[in-house]
Amino acid sequence: VDKISPEKRSRNMSQVKGRNTEPEKLVRSILHKMGYRFRLCVKKLPGNPDIVLPRYKAVIFVHGCFWHGHGGCKRATIPVTNTKFWFAKITGNKERDKCNIVALEDLGYRCLTIWQCEMKDVNALKRRLSAFLRKEGELACGKTCKARKC
Ligand SMILES: [Zn+2]
Fold first, then answer.
1. What pLDDT score was predicted for residue 132?
2. What is the distance between the alpha carbons of residues 42 and 52, in angstroms, rounded to a whole number?
3. What pLDDT was estimated at residue 44?
4. In whole angstroms, what is the distance from residue 135 CA to residue 114 CA?
């Protein structure tokens, strides 16, 4: 059941389509504090990824749960009015997201999707980001493994 008020819903929607959403800003500021350097909204890459880390050949998408149809998430409930329209719209977005990730991976990029609902636990988010961006052969402690035994 759609419990979000119409005002809140329209605000959510206006946020999601634009750039510089709050979740996006949060991820950026976390990355920045962790010392990662990145570029924003790179138009020449499939799906104009929100955050691109050229050094790591990695991209990060920050997705609003509603617009991108986060599976099993309560924020991704299809509204009870205009259900067909929303269903088609969200399904289309999900398909496009999938295609973009496939195209990016074909170009040799690694992709990470962070959902709006995953923003609450900043420490968990940091751990995910550093695990994702860790270079091959680099250990959790930041040292490089030369023995290649671990
Ligand atoms: Zn979600």
1. 94
2. 7
3. 84
4. 19
Q: In order along the chain (150 residues), what is the average pLDDT of each group of 10 residues?
A: 56 53 90 89 84 92 94 93 95 96 96 93 93 67 47
Compute the distance from residue 150 Cα to the ligand 1 centre, in Å.
Answer: 34
Asked whether the beta carbons of 80 and 132 are under 8 A apart, the reply is no
Q: What is the 94 CA–ligand 1 centroid distance (Å)? A: 13
- Which residues hold their Cβ within 5 A of ligand 1, which is an ion? 65, 70, 73, 75, 115, 117
Q: In which region does residue 41 sit, left (phi positive, over 0), alpha (psi from -120 to 50) or beta (all else)?
A: left
Closest CA to 64 of 128, 118, 6: 118
What's the 74 CA to ligand 1 centre distance in angstroms? 7
| DSSP assignments along 90-118, one per residue | HHHHHHHHHHHHHHHHHTT-EEEEEEGGG
Q: Distance, CA 108 to ligand 1 centroid (Å)? A: 27
Yes or no: say if 33 and 122 are a contact pair by the CB < 8 Å rule. no
Q: Extract the tokens encoding 94.
A: 């999900």
The predicted structure's pLDDT at residue 150 = 38
